[in-house]
Amino acid sequence: MNTSVRSTARLIGAGLRALLVLTLVTGVLYPLAVTGVAQGLLPGKANGSEIRSEGRVVGSELIGQRYDLPVKGGGRTRVPDLRWFQPRPSNGLGTNTVNTQYELLLSGATNRAGDNAELLRWVKDAKAAAVKDNSTATHKVKPGDVPADAVTSSGSGLDPHISPEYARLQAPRVAEKNQLDVAQVEKLVAEHTDGRILGFIGEPRVNVLKLNIALKDLATR
Amino acid sequence: MSPFLAGVLQMLALIAALALAYRPLGDHMARVYSSDRHLRVEKWIYKTIGANPDAEMRWPAYLRGVLAFSVVSVLFLYGLQRLQGALPGSLGFVSIDPDQAFNTAASFVSNTNWQSYYGEQAMGHVVQTGGLAVQNFVSAAVGIAVAVALVRGFARSRTGELGNFWADLVRGVVRILLPISVIGAIVLVACGAIQNFTGIHEVGQFMGGSQQWNGGAVASQEVIKELGTNGGGYFNANSAHPFENPNGFTNLFEIFLILLIPFSLTRTFGRMVGSLRQGYAILGTMATIWAGFVLLMWATEFAGHGPAFEAAGGAMEGKETRFGIGASSIFAVSTTLTSTGAVNSFHSSYTGLGGGITMLGMMLGEIAPGGVGSGLYGMLIMAIIAVFIAGLMVGRTPEYLGKKISTREIKLAACYILVTPALVLCFTAAAMALDTPVTSMTNSGAHGFSEVLYAYTSGANNNGSAFAGLNADTQWFNTTIGLAMLLGRFVPMVFVLALAGSLAEQTPVPRTAGTLRTEKPLFTGLLVGTIVIIAGLTYFPALALGPLAEGLAS
Q1: Which residue on chain A is closest to B211 by alpha carbon?
Q2: What's the pTM?
Q3: Cβ neighbours, 10 Å, residue B393
Q4: Which residue of A has its CA nearest to B177?
Q5: pLDDT of the residue at A100
Q6: What ipTM was assigned to the predicted interfaces of this complex?
Q7: Could you read off the pLDDT of A53-106 as tens digits, one per residue?
Q8: Can you give the residue range of the structural domain that contains A33?
């Protein structure tokens, strides 16, 4: 009995030493080495691909954000500011409940099923809003013109992109609100449409933040 | 180009990349586990452990090594989370509650990486990088070690010796996982994945105001998360988060990493048993199922049935614009046919049948190509069942790779395939019968049942993906899923190692005209059939209540 206890203890000791030494290799040295290389060679990418405009950071090219109307006192409403191109809905984004010293952005999806009544309502409301918001005096949007990404939430809730179809759908409205030519805005959308990588990887997309920065340039020129 | 055609081309590019890596990596791994030379860093590690890497172990000793290392790992990771609030470098995050800390420790040590926490609001740098990411490496290396022990059981005869666990563990980390991870992490950073140790900070926004971001060693963890078929995301949104998976190329690269070692291990297997064609037959089985599942997934996701998807004009809920339906489907199939469980799109918002395909992928036992190591040993167990069935048909004692499959072997294989279904079905039934677990569901009806069935399927098979509508951070789910993960990982390993020991002791039987040719396409067909029939018979009633009911109604 005594020997089996002793040999078990010896084995557990070996396991612990193995874990500690492998923690040193894979949990300390490896991440530090990769961080060193990343910060040395690719600091912009390693720190979140921030975009600057007019001398200040306005976000990341990888992280979506909202473009809502302001309220008095500096806060934001949840009402979209139709001057700007709008991103996908983000009903899956959560709020921080555990560590309340921060107001973190909590990524996430809605996880609603195709037959979920709430999701069906969200989709229908978003579609109605897309039709109403994007119709102008001279250009009426039909429900069939609204692409799927305009009315569904993404997996992360932080999708920085919209489909080229959704960007084109918004062009007449954006042109009207900014007193620009529709053709000018459509050209802007075309310039900011990224095709598939190498022609077949991923999907065509438009980066909403980059597009809005370019739009701001155009509108204030 | 249509999205479907782009999906097909991405699939072909993926197959080409995997094919290019297959020979060099498979041969490299065979050398790693056959070599009697030790690198200098390895000698230093063995000295620290106090283990003799050249001491051969019989199966009980090998198993004791696996279990001792894993028990210590669970306790260490549990302790780290419980102490987080007091540790420096934790960004002010509080300690994790006992039930959740147990669940997470069990999850990462068992290579499952089920997460009942939100990464960005619960885990600081120390736990993420020094605890969770470490298990991403070592749990993967343990899986490969057990698979290699089984392969040695086939390759060796008249001995009971299966190699040295400590040497297999350390070599897997040092010679296979680390080098690929270093390169892969830098590729990911170059594409936009973040890699820093900044704290939570404010970043300005276009309309004014700011967003709060976490920093973190994301790229270095992301690469081993995929390569080791772990799947636990740094962020809650996992590989859908742009900081983990910035563009279409990284998406394809991450799928490549998921499939790389599981597929290549069939070459290692062929090398070590002395017949590459035996490895190709196993590879053929895995690839057939994987490609077939991708085709099925495309069919249902591009069709997009379901009231909300039909109203939206496509099944884009829970999917990212940059990946679209085509690449999201490849990822979903690859992550659930391996033990990865990383997601780039949310399976709960797939069509009813699409969600069923992800579940069925796990129910097959995650063997096509399966987790690192666990895929190969799971598939070899199925091969034993298949030769047994073939033997029954012709009335001959079955044999595989020159080893007789007699009573002891078939009992061990049968026990192996019963463990996970028993865990999945019993825990699901218990959760459905009790009053409180059901309140965790977000969706109702068939999909609500699917959320619970998915949770235990994912846990017991060590996958870790979720129908994430289920609020799994309750004492019931944390505890029962934690148990399912540990039992689903280590009980099958006991049977695998016992089997390896008994195979290694045998004297090989000479091949005769009556021997089933297990390197032929006929055997591949038999094996695919066996896998589908076993999973189908086991899980059909449960699937009928969940995804099939939902899929057929829409």
Answers
A1: A105
A2: 0.97
A3: 11
A4: A26
A5: 67
A6: 0.95
A7: 989 999 999 999 999 998 777 667 789 999 999 999 999 887 777 766 677 778
A8: 1-47
CA distance B331 to B314: 18
Q: Determine, for residues A114 and B308 on separate chains, whether the beta-carbon distance falls below 8 Å.
A: yes
Task: Kindly report the number of other CB atoms within 10 A of residue A218's CB atom.
Answer: 14
CB neighbour class for B48 (10 Å; exposed up to 12, middle 13-18, buried from 19): middle
Domain boundaries, chain B: 3-553
Identify whether residues A97 and A56 lie together within a single domain.
Answer: yes
- Residues of chain A numbered 59-98 and touching chain B (CB < 8 Å): 59-63, 65-68, 70, 74-76, 81, 84, 88, 92, 94, 96-98
Test A146 with B313 for CB contact under 8 angstroms: yes
Contact at CB, B320 and A94, closer than 8 angstroms: no
- With CB atoms and an 8 Å threshold, state whether B346 touches A124: no
For residue B510, is the peptide bond before it cis, meaning its omega torsion is within 30 degrees of 0? no
Burial of B507 (0-12, 13-18, 19+ CB in 10 A): exposed
**Tokens standing for residue B152:** 């040695």
**B202 has which bridge partners?**
B212
Could you tell me if A105 lies within 8 Å of chain B, comparing CB atoms? yes
Buried b (16+ CB within 10 A) or exposed e, B209-223: eebebbbbbbbbbbb
Together in a domain, A108 and A196: yes
Identify from B322, B351, B465 which residue to disrupt to test chain A contact, counting A C-beta atoms within 10 A and taking the largest count: B322
A116 touches chain B (CB under 8 A): yes
Distances in whole angstroms, Cα of residue B250 to Cα of each of B196, B323, B331, B438? 19, 10, 12, 37
Q: Which residues on chain A are in Cβ contact (under 8 Å) with B76?
A: 16, 19
Q: What are the beta bridge partners of residue A193?
A: A206
How many structural domains does chain A have?
2
Nearest CA in chain A to B248: A202
